[in-house]
Write a structure and sequence with these properties.
single chain, 13 helices, about 75% helix, DUF349, coiled coil
Length: about 425
């Protein structure tokens, strides 16, 4: 191959290593360049553009270029920046050059550098595989954690929080690093199943809630319909009872959606208020109609109070009966005045009953006989104790004296009380 100077290479920028070139090559006077490889010589080219030394230096620079490329790529691989594909291409290029040399240089050194570069490639490949495996492991761990959390939420009933979290987990899944396709697909199936289970349960729940709310609305619409019919009733007693029943039914009915429930309650309350406002207005009007009776009953109460203090029960009873008859004829009074007015008559009635009870007690022969018997019994006991005390004193028996005195001290008050009870019968 005839050689002439070409483009500038990295080796050309460095001084030519002439001693190495002469060691591993030579140039014939006719310009033929040989590579010395061990005991063999291989023709590598023909130099015609200058002196033999220049020709030898030219082919030596080709060798240097190849060695510089290998050194640069080896350093880049060590730094983690080089491409193993570029390195393999360069090794193939170097091995092709060794098979059909077009340079002058140390073939054994070039072979060693190729072997070292191959070892670096293998080391880099192993490290890359380890890094890839670690990334896949981390990716699998992250996606597994996403799936496990999703499965823990599949049976949740806190629909808002769990639903938001599952959506966040889906976004995390989309941005998570990828691992092996098969295991990742299996994890996706688990994740998808967890989400589907949650969504199915959530839809069932809210479907049931909607059905219950519709049922609640229907039940409350029925209650409202009854309430609105009652709103114009003037049957105050039965109407009030009916409204109490409707309120109880309302409380037992399930709740509708909050806004709907509020609107339904407002309608029911309006009907209820309409009835009770009318009822209260009617009661106020009726109370006012009774107000003239207050003066009439007050006069009757004053007439009854004129019987006090009662000394003649029979005459007082006849007079009070007449007052009571006229009292009933007057009719009711307003609620606010009722206790005050009726209380005055009640005091006179109570005084008459107390007098009659006292008279009956005094005229009761059985009660009088029991009182007399009680006095007699206590009197016998006191008389006996008095004799015992006198005997004990006569005998100067201090112990017996003390005993009789104590017994007498207990019995004497009982005798006095029995005598007072008998006196109530006029005895």
């Amino acid at each position: 191959m005839t050689a002439t100077p070409g483009g500038i290479t990295p080796a050309m920028l460095a001084p030519a290593r002439t001693s190495d070139a002469r060691r591993f090559g030579r140039v014939e006077p006719d310009g033929t360049v040989y590579l010395i490889r061990g005991t063999d010589e291989v023709r590598v080219g023909q130099w015609v553009a200058g002196t033999p030394e220049q020709g030898l230096a030219f082919y030596a620079r080709r060798y240097d270029d190849l060695m510089v490329e290998i050194d640069l790529l080896a350093r880049r691989l060590r730094e983690g920046r080089g491409s193993t594909e570029d390195a393999q291409t360069l090794i193939a290029k170097a091995k092709a050059a060794l098979a059909t040399p077009d340079f002058v240089g140390d073939c054994e050194a070039l072979t060693r550098r190729c072997d070292e570069l191959s070892a670096s490639i293998e080391s880099r490949r192993v490290a890359a595989q380890a890094e890839k495996a670690a990334r896949k492991t981390q990716a699998a761990a992250r996606r597994t954690a996403i799936v496990v959390e999703a499965e823990s939420l599949a049976d949740a009933t806190n629909w808002k929080v769990a639903g938001d979290r599952l959506r966040d987990l889906l976004e995390e899944w989309k941005t998570a690093p990828h691992g092996d396709k098969g295991p990742e697909q299996a994890l996706w199936k688990r994740f998808s199943a967890a989400r589907s289970n949650f969504e199915r349960r959530r839809k069932q729940h809210f479907s049931q809630v909607d059905a219950e709310r519709k049922e609640a609305s229907s039940a409350k619409e029925s209650i409202i319909s009854e309430a609105e019919k009652l709103a114009t009733s003037t049957d105050w007693v039965n109407g009030a009872k009916a409204f109490r029943t409707l309120v109880d039914r309302w409380k037992l009915a399930p709740r509708a959606q909050r806004s709907a429930d509020d609107r339904l309650w407002a309608r029911f309350k309006a009907a209820q208020d309409s009835f009770f406002d009318a009822k209260n207005a009617a009661a106020t009007e009726a109370e006012e109609a009774l107000r003239p009776n207050v003066e009439a009953k007050a006069a009757l109460a004053a007439e009854a109070e004129g019987l006090l203090p009662i000394t003649d029960a029979k005459a007082a009873k006849a007079a009070l009966r007449s007052i009571q008859s006229r009292w009933d004829a007057v009719g009711d009074v307003p609620r606010a005045e009722r206790e005050r007015v009726e209380g005055r008559l009640r005091k006179v009635e109570e005084a008459l009953r107390a007098l009659e009870a006292d008279r009956w007690k005094k005229d009761n022969p059985e009660a009088r006989a029991r009182a007399e018997a009680t006095v007699a019994a206590f009197q016998i006991s006191v008389d006996k104790l008095s004799k015992e005390l006198a005997n004990a004193k006569a005998k100067a028996n201090d112990a017996a004296v003390t005993k009789a005195e104590n017994a007498l001290a207990s019995s004497q008050p009982l005798l006095e009380a029995a005598k007072r009870a008998l006196e109530e019968f006029g005895g």
